[in-house]
């Protein structure tokens, strides 16, 4: 019974009480909210204006031209390293948590759409692998999200703050993880016949999921669209030489930022460096 529950399409099971059209309409509305919220975020924060202004500035300061072939190579490298492999994270644990959350969410989202639109009722049998993949994607989000929240966050690991501390910047990751968590719990309750629990969990699932997509203009949701563009622009600026115009540390500055500063310091100074592992980000 326990294992069989993970091969059942919970949305098809729900269709005996809720019309598939209602579920499909809800998904479409959420997609519209993503598009509209991202567009509003771009306009409100002037992200696109800043990006294109920075792009023009980079081209005007370019020391060499980037050919079409090189541009394609840079785009592929950006997609593979910065997007698919999250290469911007130097910390291995942080990168792994991000990849689990990112790929888990993609799997969870795609399989949700497939089950709601392609197999909306019990009259259209769902392939058993599809719900299994849906659960796997959701569990990946939970593992990556909770791992990051309780064990990897810099203000928890390096600064000693409570893992329950919440800031507006945490809105996206918290609502995402809670949405998926309530979704998985609801699906299990729905397919195993726990009617009362399924109603409560379905309500929580819909509330948090709606909040996740409605709050896009005020959360970090849309960063998934900005980061690839910023990474591409950075690589192009390095390729055309415009990044060389940025200030760099002189040898004297590098020396002043090293342990040389403590050469003539009292013995009581600098001991704080030894009190924790170098886990800052």
Return the structural class.
mainly alpha
Low-confidence stretches: 248-257
The biggest sheet, with number of strands, parallel, antiparallel or mixed sense and barrel status, is: none
The domain tally reads: 1
Q: What are the secondary-structure elements, in order, as H or E?
A: HHHHHHHHHHH
SS field, number of helical segments: 11
Q: How many strands in all?
A: 0
What is the radius of gyration?
A: 24 Å
| Strand portion | under 5%
Shape: globular
Overall average pLDDT:
82
Q: Briefly, what CATH class?
A: Mainly Alpha
N-C termini distance: 45 Å
How would you characterize this protein structure?
This protein is an all-alpha fold and 281 residues long. The chain has a single domain, classed as Fumarate Reductase Cytochrome B subunit (Up-down Bundle), CATH 1.20.950. Helix 3 runs parallel beside helix 10, helix 4 packs across helix 10 and helix 8 runs antiparallel to helix 9. It is globular and about 65 Å long. The two termini are 45 Å apart. About 4% of the residues have low confidence.
Summarize the structure.
This protein is an all-alpha fold and 281 residues long. The protein is built from 11 helices and no strands. About 4% of the residues have low confidence.
Question: Would you spell out the secondary-structure blueprint of this structure?
Answer:
Layout: H1 10-14, H2 20-45, H3 47-60, H4 68-84, H5 92-117, H6 129-152, H7 154-157, H8 171-191, H9 195-214, H10 223-239, H11 251-256
